[in-house]
Structures are given as C-alpha cells and as structure tokens.
C-alpha cells in the first residue's frame, strides 16, 4: 500500500482521530474513528484527546486509514519497530473477530496434535514470571525468544511455540501475548475443564526476565509461597492452579522426572486432588511441590475441598487462571471479553458508543451549517 503524503491543496476530508499517549513521552498512538467530507463553510474545532486532521490527498474514505498510518501514527519520526511491537493492540470488533478465528484454529490444532498439556504449560510459563513489585515479566509473549525459552524450567516449551507460529502468521493482528494465553484457555476448555474468561489486549514485549522465577518442583510449601506471592497470588490460587497438573506428564528429557499425575492426562478434572489424598500410587507422579499441598495445613484444606467437589475446583480454577493470565495487564476500557454473555454485552456497548459519537458529529456539523446560513 503506497504512502500518501499531505500537500497544500484544499482538503477533501477531515478525519476524526483519538490521540492516546504511549509510555514514552515522545510517542502517541492515533486511532482513526471516521471521516467527514470537508466543507470550507465550517469551522472545525475539537478538544483533546480528539483531533481533526485535514487530508488533502485522500480521495476516498477507504484511503484514510492508510494516510493516517503513514503520516500521523507517531508524533516523532524517531520511532522504531521495537517500540511499535510493544504497543498494546487496538481491541475492537475486528480484533475480536480475529481472536475467535484463532480460537477455532487452536481447537483444531489441539485436537489433531493432542497438545493441550504443553499449550497450558506455555501459557503458565509466559505468565508465571511476573513480579508484582518490579512490574516485570508476566504474560507478554517474551517466552518466544531464545533468551527465555532456553531457561531450564522451559525445556521443551519451544515445541508449543513452533506449533503456534502458523496460527500467529495466519492471524498477524493478534499479539503473541494474547495468542499464548488464548491457547492456554482453549487447552483447558477442550479437555473438559471450565470456561475461562479471556480479555484481549496484551502487548508483546522483547524484554526477557532473568532465569529462576518459575517454581522448582524439588522445593516445598515455602518456595511455592515465595513464587506465587511474588506474583500477587494467594494460597487458594496456588492449590487451584496446581490442579492443572491433571493435564500432561513429566518427561525426563525436560524436567528430569517421568510420569503422569493422573490416570487420564488428557482430561481436565479434579482427579489430581483425588490422587494426592490417596498418597503414593504406583505409576503416578508426586513431586515435592505436589506433596507440599497435602502436608501444609492451609494448602490441604483446599485439596480436600477440590477432591470432593469438582464444581468448586472448576470455579476456583477458572478464577485463578484468569488472574494468572492477566498479571501486569490492565485491560483497555474498550476490551472485549470472550465469554459469550460478556462478549455480546461488550459488542452492544461498543456499537452504542460508535453510534453516539457519529450522531454527535453529525449534529455538530448540522448546527454549524445552520449557524452559517443564519449569519
């Protein structure tokens, strides 16, 4: 698509824009709302953060987004591709439609490859590096870089990254951060687990955290608390999220351990907790971090609840998984939720807001024209 450069000829359209500051004081993102035919009889005025830009060379409204992208996206010409990649995506109806298409592709991928466990592991390991004090790490897609996926705790995670790359290329609008967390949500749902609320809008980061932030399976209760409290999570979150070990198995080439935690490692249910309370079971894996859940009194009370009540486990797991997937992430006000009820409501709110803005501009134009004629 060719770049359209502004000239001094009379503008054919004016574009209504939303100017939003980025973390760097020299950068601003510009969101195109819609355009209006230019009328020389009108005085066009707006208040920040709205902008009206005269567009001389734009012949049609279809050309406006291209014109704006090439001419006004950054207030400084010293922008870099790295800075652009770390800008949060615009979560609008088009972005959410892409999310839903990616969700369908993820379901097909997981069904064909039986890769739900490693997709869930990828989502956890990308998010589980978060540090609430320093506001670093978390679900930002940085695990796709060798500096991070080569960490000892991430052995084998490159398999999931490579499996997801074709889906990312097919849906380039979606950030890696959103895609990896969506993959974890879908992995739980398609294996019989709870529906997890997914809010899009995570921005990608190229900054990888230092090694050592993920749980060490050889440690006990105090270590688990150190890791999860650092993220801002609770004892209940520790136990409910540990229930995700109902999926998958440990492999010696990755962790040094071998075996599955449950008898059906491709089914998401509460059997992890049932097996924990049975003690040592031949053929099933119990790591030090697993045993800590029954040895520590505060942890054990949740284990007992979840072993008896799968519905309670599903409810708490969905809540804890959502918290984990949103660590350090502040959903934009316009973010769409992917739960069916919330999604429909959000779509209606977005549509209503768009209609209201359009109506206001039309009314404003009409009043200006009327005042001109009266004057």
Automatic annotation (TrEMBL):
Pfam families: peroxidase. GO terms for molecular function: heme binding; L-ascorbate peroxidase activity; metal ion binding. Its EC number is 1.11.1.11. InterPro entries: Ccp1-like, Haem_peroxidase, Haem_peroxidase_sf, Peroxidase_I, Peroxidases_AS, Peroxidases_heam-ligand_BS. The keyword DNA repair does not apply. One of its GO terms (biological process) is response to reactive oxygen species. It is an enzyme of class 1 (oxidoreductase). Keywords: Calcium, Heme, Hydrogen peroxide, Iron, Membrane, Metal-binding, Oxidoreductase, Peroxidase, Potassium, Transmembrane, Transmembrane helix. Residues 116-342 form the Plant heme peroxidase family profile domain. It comes from Panicum hallii. The keyword Heme applies. It catalyses: L-ascorbate + H2O2 = L-dehydroascorbate + 2 H2O. The chain crosses the membrane at residues 347-367. Its cofactor is heme b. This is L-ascorbate peroxidase. Belongs to the peroxidase family. Ascorbate peroxidase subfamily. GO terms for cellular component: chloroplast.
